[in-house]
Amino acid sequence: MEKVKIAIIGAGPAGIASAIEAKASKIEPVVILEKSDQICYTINKFYKPGKRVDANFKSAGIKPIGLCSFETETKENFLKRIENWTKQWNLDIRFKAEVTNITKNGEGYDIWIKDNPEIWAEFVIIAIGIFGTPRKPSYPIPSELKNKIFFEPPQQQFENKKILVVGGGNTAAEVAYSLCDNNEIYISYRRPQFFRINETNLKILNEKAKQGKIKLLLNTDIEKLEPFDDKIKVYFKNNKEDIYDYIIYCLGGSTPKRFLQKIGIQMDNKKPSLDEYFETNLPKVFLVGDIAVEKGNIMKAFNTAHIVIKRIKEKYLK
Ligand SMILES: Cc1cc2nc3c(=O)[nH]c(=O)nc-3n(C[C@H](O)[C@H](O)[C@H](O)COP(=O)(O)OP(=O)(O)OC[C@H]3O[C@@H](n4cnc5c(N)ncnc54)[C@H](O)[C@@H]3O)c2cc1C
Predict the structure, then answer these.
(1) Which residues line ligand 1 at a C-beta cut-off of 6 Å?
(2) Do domains 2-132+253-316 and 143-249 have the same CATH topology?
(3) Which run of H or of E encompasses 17?
(4) Which of 13, 47, 62, 80 has a CA that sits 20 to 30 A from residue 290's CA?
């Protein structure tokens, strides 16, 4: 079996930053295992072309503490930046390598790729994010509606459709205004006002609402959905109802509990239980990025990578 010092699971911002920090500290060999065929799969898949990648997404004023950082820029420039880093640091990334299990073996762990133990690593850094497991509403979705409902920003284009976007965060705002020039767009949000959206998105959203391009359904909560001809009938809790062509839920991702529990990571109130350096109850197994923090963003992902590598050096490699 191939032996490495660190196996990193996931080639998103957190995984790539972890590999860079490790190589800069001369902790090698490091391998990144990525289930898709590209780096930064979440960003490639869910960000629209030309999307602004905000350096202050969800939390303002977060400062970089390690080697990886960026300024607000387009999706394309951000991805180019990351690609350049992978070349500059000569990162060993294995694509189409979905990790399905991690089991203890001596002083380290066997890493199972597609159900085969293929790599032994002394340290494991899990950087799989939360967008593989999108959050879903609590009411049932009738099976007839499955191809009209999205739980993540859709990749397809829409034209002249009536679309309900559900959610009150930055993703809901960005999805709504990216579609509003060619469609009739509504946003349903449970609260009386938006408070999780950053300044730039809020400004754009309010402008579009003023122009009548987006209708804000604040203080609304959905009770149930029903098929209606070829459309969706939405019953709101305030006794109102309306008919839409599509619904896009932007409720964020959720911790991939099943995977973490399978490998033996303890959960504390639905969140993985971690020490202040992001080490799990399994010695030498760390979490970084979105699965390790509240309200994740890219800068936090970079910063968790720095903290974890520093900890590995100080606790285990002195
Ligand atoms: C629509 C949208 C807009 C956003 N806009 C911004 C923004 O403007 N600014 C900002 O800072 N943040 C933004 N975010 C959040 C940001 O994308 C995340 O915080 C960031 O991607 C987290 O990085 P990560 O490396 O932890 O996880 P991810 O980027 O999700 O990467 C996880 C990687 O792990 C891989 N993987 C998953 N499971 C396995 C497995 N079992 N085996 C191997 N590989 C696996 C995935 O394919 C993926 O490549 C946005 C998110 C969304 C959805």
Answers:
(1) 9-15, 33-36, 40-43, 46-47, 53-54, 57, 98-99, 127-129, 131-132, 153, 171, 289-290, 296-299, 301
(2) yes
(3) helix 13-24
(4) 80
